[in-house]
Amino acid sequence: MAKPSFRTHHGMHDILPDESPKWLALETIVRETAKRFHFHEIRTPIMEDTALIARGVGELTDIVSKEMFAFNRGEDKYVLRPEGTASVSRAYIQHNLAQLGGVQRLFYIGPMFRAERPQKGRQRQFHQFGVEVLGSAEAVADTETIAFMIAVIQKIGITRYTLKLNSVGDIESRTAYKEALVNYFSPLKSKLSEISQQRLEQNPMRILDSKDEGDKVLVVNAPKILDYLNEDCTAHFEAVKTQLTQLGIDFEINPLLVRGLDYYSKTAFEISSPDLGAQDALGGGGRYDLLVEELGGKKTPAVGFACGIERLLIASEALGLNLVKDHRPDVIMISLGDEAQLWSLKAAQELRAIGLNVTMHYSVGSMKAQMKNANRENAKYCIIVGDNELAAKEFVLRDMDKSVEQKHNWSQILAQLSPLAKSL
Ligand code: AMP
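^ thats the input. predicted complex w/ adenosine monophosphate below
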């Protein structure tokens, strides 16, 4: 019988031990940034009710119409979440987070699932960190949300990026704008791609982000949303621009940056990087003042963004950044004999208790094999213990970088190593 052979699904990846330190480093940057901005973490289930995602992301989007991993179990319809905003909004409503008072400033980190065609920077299981601010209609909330995303990007060390900014108005502004778009595109309908012809009927704003080259030519002269904003939306957009300028955050106005759904409003933004290739968005977001109501909650203005973690890692690698500061063990215990190993087991615990990162060789092999392992583990020091050392209560402390070693009693070793101690 053939041996079974199992592999991950297409577009889904293991994060192996040699990669996980940089993931941890990046997640730590997100958490530290959240602490600085005083945002709180929310963790929602990976599966949601399919109807929530259909409504929250939009029936007409590619995500819902083509890319959901969904299945039924009994009466219940499950979907692996493709993004975080619908889940966070559901949790906000379900647990009545509004009753806590004030504005909810939330962040999340976790896997998302979309059945897309995998390519560089595009996977079927990928990871996002995101921020959602619920309960504020103020432009400052938009600006702080953008500032959070930029803070993470800068802390990683990504220097080459562009913030694209637009306003998609509110329903009133958009009704006027959609009419202008239909008037502009209708005489050109036969020249539009098939998908854009459909969108002309269903959701004309989505023609603006068409990938079709022919459509792109026609889009150049199409009316611009910014000319159709009402007074409230214009004032909001101006305030966001002034605040970003105040923070020294550069931006580019891009009137083609649209979110086609009616519950998106006012600010829309995206941050792209030239180091990513075809899929060049690091992240994006915007205001969604009507979504919570759409999902059954009270009217709650909100703004947020999501950023792709794989893409942040691709950009940081392209720039040669090293996110992992120190992944070396401070000490590796080398024991020559069973009794020595028993002693080392306890000594390792003592060193860990004072704040050192310590590993040990599990099998009591030859000195040569254990030293080879100490080099592979890239330990800063090793402590070598054999029967003679146990009898004399003096142990060999070897500085692996300098290749020098000396015998010390245990309290001298503790004194010498204690400067390496760090808190967890
Ligand atoms: P979106 O929710 O589509 O606006 O996505 C927000 C961010 O998540 C994007 O800017 C990407 O960085 C990342 N992202 C979205 N889809 C994928 C995917 N299939 N694979 C990897 N990253 C993705």
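The CA atoms of residues 3 and 85 lie 43 Å apart.
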